[in-house]
User: Fold this.
Amino acid sequence: MELRHLRYFRVLARTLNFTRAAELLHIAQPPLSRQIQQLEAELGVALLERGRPLKLTEAGRFFNEHASQLLEQLDRLCTDTRRMGQGSKRWLGIGFAPSTMYGALPDLIRRLRSPGDVEIGLLELITLQQLDALKSGRIDIGFGRILFDDPAIHQFVLREDPLVAALPSGHPLLAGPVSLAQLAVEPFVLYPGTPRPSYADHVLKLFAAQGLSIHVAQLANELQTAMGLVAAGIGVTLVPASVQRLHRDDIGYSALLDASATSPIVVSYRAGDQSGLLREVLAGLGHA
Assistant:
């Protein structure tokens, strides 16, 4: 399948007339018909009901909607690439662990976007995944929760977030601050389940440091899933205090009595990366 097949089909889907579509595409009608037939043969489905009037099949409507989105994304990609090549626009890839989106990261993104000369690519990745994405060039900077020893990557702690207990609405431990010892006897929702090591291992170490272990009632791969499981009464979990901005009627939060129960926001970037935009971002984070 080639891009011209998508472009030809988009015009035909818009006009529903082979003659008119061929005129708009500046090609003869027989070649257009052959291109559409080739597209249908490759997909193995009919995209058109060839009657009078011409109609899209259900598969044709689905294909047209998504093909149009792909072509629009490609057009934006080409335009932004030209602007970057001309020096009028810069690109920054950011990887982020979900919980960091409740802290300082949204403010940083707004500041970067406000002048209009920076295109930002966002990828939801836990810290371990961010390291691979940095090395492959998919992102330029990552905001995660775990420190790793990797000579190819520089890391620093932006700040320590206090942790709070997330509990289902009506839970007796919502009456006041709680200790890790009190939480250790509760069924626990641990996240992310994979890949590891991750924030899950950080939580386990907090309990282990006090000689405690927890009963993991359920593993979840995403923060939102973990919160939904807590709301359903499956267990309790620990989240950064900034997550309390996620207001839910079916979940409550309790502060922790243990001052050591914190989670760092860890900034990661490639060692030796001298990009001007990256340097601006690091300076804005207080790490020149």
